[in-house]
Amino acid sequence: MRSCRDITALMSLGLDKKLGLNERLAIGMHVMMCSGCRNFQSQSQFIRKAAQGYAEQLQKRRDGE
Ligand SMILES: [Zn+2]
């Protein structure tokens, strides 16, 4: 069983690169049992989506000029 620290570190890593099957499984198993890490996961995905949308907006604006 991995600790919450390990799991959140893996999640942060997974935002930037593809995780292996074992790592994704470890996260999946952990968030099923741990609501703290589940919250962390949904928050980090939300922030990532927001950041992506912002980057796309900037890119569009740059292309328009
Ligand atoms: Zn946890």
Q: Please, could you describe this protein's structure?
A:
By secondary structure, the protein is mainly alpha-helical. It is built from three helices and no strands. The model has no long low-confidence stretch (mean pLDDT 92). Residues 4, 7, 30, 34, 36-37 line the site of zinc ion.
Secondary-structure map with pairings?
Elements: H1 4-16, H2 21-33, H3 35-64
Bound molecules: zinc ion (ZN).
Stretches where pLDDT is under 50 for at least 5 consecutive residues are: none
The molecules bound to the chains, other than polymers, are:
zinc ion
How large is the share of residues in beta strands?
A: under 5%
On the 0-100 scale, what is the average pLDDT? 92
Number of helices: 3
- Work out the count of structural domains: 1
Shape: elongated
CA gyration radius, whole angstroms: 15 Å
The main pleated sheet reads as: none
What attributes does this structure have?
65 residues, mainly alpha, binds zinc ion, single chain, 86% helix, elongated, 3 helices
Provide a concise account of the structure shown.
The chain is mainly alpha-helical and 65 residues long. It has three helices and no strands. The chain has helices at residues 4-16, 21-33, 35-64.
